[in-house]
Amino acid sequence: MSRLSTNQLTLAYGSRRIVENLNLSVPDGKITSLVGANGSGKSTILKSLARILNPQSGGVFLDGKQIHRQPTKEVAKQLAILPQNPTSPEGLTVRELISFGRYPHQRGFGSLSAEDNRMIDWALQATGMGEFHDRAVDQLSGGQRQRAWIAMALAQGTEVLLLDEPTTFLDMAHQIEVMSLLEKLNREQKRTIIMVVHDLNHAARFSQHLVALKRGTVLYEGHPEVVMTPAMLRDVFGIDADVIPDPRTGAPLCLPYGLAEGHGQAPVSVPGRTAAHREDGRLTAAAVV
């Protein structure tokens, strides 16, 4: 049984329903990418999986228990979330940022324990950020900053990581840097990772499971080689594209050519897009559950 799943999940902002009767099981120990055009419900679903957004009906289940009925600290010991474009106070060092990930394991306002410091050191090493431990977060490059935030999530000591567009606003090199880190964490530590991804070619290359959404409904789901097809790209994104094997990795590679017939000028999400998007028009400030 999947550790993280939904059952007849309906999500809404006020009277506007975004997702309705969603049944989704996140494969354990794999990287799952949520893909879809703007407004398809990707970030909304991720917020509900992270216990940030309460369902209108149905539920999200973690180890068979409704996640929204569990204490916040208990959930935070089991899954960590990295929201889109997180911010930190000016002058905060990398190590101080990562230490916030230990909050769910602390009692009261005591100092960091030996176990806390061990986990912080491990997270620094796992993300390659050890040499920057005393550097201010706001002085880091985009890729380094994102690795620091991922290290904070790792320091929580959870088996499940949720990430909302982890490569947004990063240049090509830093995108590869972050995605390769996530791939390494999954491969070496069997972390279950679920993330919202705009770049379809990144999703196909670095994921073992794709969920393609349209208007809050799962239209396609499975291994990238099964999901990434011209039919999916037409149905989900409204684009005309070819799909070929990547010459190096063998992963399906999307080559978009234009809008599919009958789709007019509707906005689409295509590989390489990195513009920020918030489906509900709001920003999420919390970095941990």
UniProtKB/TrEMBL annotation:
Molecular function per GO:
ATP binding; ATP hydrolysis activity
Does the keyword Nucleotide-binding feature in the UniProt annotation?
A: yes
Q: Which UniProt keywords apply?
A: ATP-binding, Cell membrane, Ion transport, Iron, Iron transport, Membrane, Nucleotide-binding, Transport
Q: Which SMART domains match?
A: AAA
What Gene3D superfamilies is this protein classified in? Answer: P-loop containing nucleotide triphosphate hydrolases
Q: Where is the ABC transporter domain?
A: 4-240
Q: Does the keyword NADP apply?
A: no
Quote any Pfam family the record assigns.
ABC_tran
- Cross-referenced InterPro entries, in alphabetical order? AAA+_ATPase (IPR003593), ABC_transporter-like_ATP-bd (IPR003439), ABC_transporter-like_CS (IPR017871), P-loop_NTPase (IPR027417), Siderophore_ABC-ATPase (IPR051535)
User: Mind telling me which PROSITE patterns this protein's record contains?
Assistant: ABC_TRANSPORTER_1, ABC_TRANSPORTER_2
Q: Where in the cell is it found?
A: Cell membrane
Bilayer topology: Peripheral membrane protein
| Gene Ontology BP terms | iron ion transport
Highest taxon listed in the record's lineage: Bacteria
> Which cellular component terms (GO) are annotated to the entry?
plasma membrane
**UniProt-recorded name of the protein:** ABC transporter ATP-binding protein
